[in-house]
Write a structure and sequence with these properties.
Layout: E1 2-3, H1 4-11, H2 15-23, E2 31-32, E3 39-41, H3 46-57, H4 62-71, H5 75-110, E4 122-126, E5 129-138, H6 144-155, E6 168-172, E7 182-190, E8 201-205, E9 208-216, H7 222-235, E10 238-240, E11 245-250, E12 262-271
Antiparallel strand pairs: 1-3, 2-3, 4-9, 5-7, 5-8, 6-7, 6-11, 9-12, 10-12, 11-12
């Protein structure tokens, strides 16, 4: 048996907090002397004390720690719970990182002393070409990667011949800005024709004209790029004739840094 001072030294929990844990039923001593009131702990309680200290360092409240240790009695259950919490925290961090990037981008745009990006819109004639296509509804814009993974799965082992340079295209069929349940089609340009396979479709796209703008950097810049193209279309007396699409010349498939992405934003147009 260990006296409270000895247990405090081994567990790195103060005597004051050990007494408090006893009072709230979080960690009771193995034995309390009825005459002296001295608290005695066993070595077997050290793992529990370590869990309490670790959970407290995670920022969890004592009532929640008590609930967790009661509900997840063994290490396997506690490990599964913490893995779920870790995944949720990672999602929050990723969301906060995207929000921070947007804030920084907005600040930069509002800072008159910052260099204004020089965007140049071009009128481009797209020749007739063949593509392999995969089209699905996705919940949110950041799930576009699911479509690319689906296209890769559908075409695995087909020995496709891609154009050089290859076009990786995402078409947004909704025709308006929505943030959920988006109708998105991804395409890769190919040489030759092929039979449909599963959810992947091979088709020929006829020639068309589009107003395009190629930029380097984070996808957070897309709203500004869209604004520039829209203004160009109006000023040059064109009208939009089809769904907007992006061509990813450099994408997360080959680069890790969003700042190195090269994207060509395209709006099919025709004269008014």
């Amino acid at each position: 048996m260990l006296r409270i001072g000895e247990f405090s030294a081994l567990s790195q929990i103060s005597i004051y907090m050990l007494r408090h844990y006893d009072e709230i039923g979080l960690l009771a001593p193995e034995h309390t002397d009825n005459f002296t009131g001295y608290r005695y702990y066993s070595e077997a309680q050290l793992p529990t004390a370590n869990k309490i200290r670790a959970l407290k360092n995670m920022g969890l409240s004592l009532p929640l720690i008590k609930e967790i240790l009661t509900k997840y009695a063994n290490d396997y259950e506690l490990k599964a719970y913490l893995e779920t919490q870790a995944a949720q925290q990672k999602e929050k961090i990723e969301l906060m990182q995207r929000q921070l990037t947007l804030i920084e981008s907005t600040i930069k745009g509002l800072d008159r002393s910052s260099p204004i990006p020089s965007y140049s819109v071009a009128l481009k004639e797209f020749p007739k070409h063949n593509v392999i296509s995969y089209r699905q509804i996705i919940t949110t814009p950041d799930q576009e990667g699911i479509l690319w993974a689906g296209l890769a799965k559908e075409t695995k082992g087909l020995n496709l011949h891609y154009t050089n340079p290859q076009w990786n295209i995402a078409i947004f069929h909704d025709g308006k800005l929505i943030e959920e349940n988006l109708d998105v089609e991804v395409q890769k340009s190919v040489v030759g024709t092929y039979q449909r396979t599963g959810l992947a479709t091979f088709k020929t796209v006829d020639t068309f004209t589009a107003a395009t703008l190629t930029f380097k950097g984070h996808y957070m810049n897309l709203p500004v790029v869209n604004e520039v193209i829209a203004r160009w279309i109006i000023d040059n007396h064109y009208k939009i004739s089809g769904p907007r699409f992006n061509i990813y010349h450099v994408s997360p498939e080959t680069e890790n840094s969003f700042e190195d992405m090269i994207t060509e934003v395209c709006f099919p147009v025709q004269s008014k």
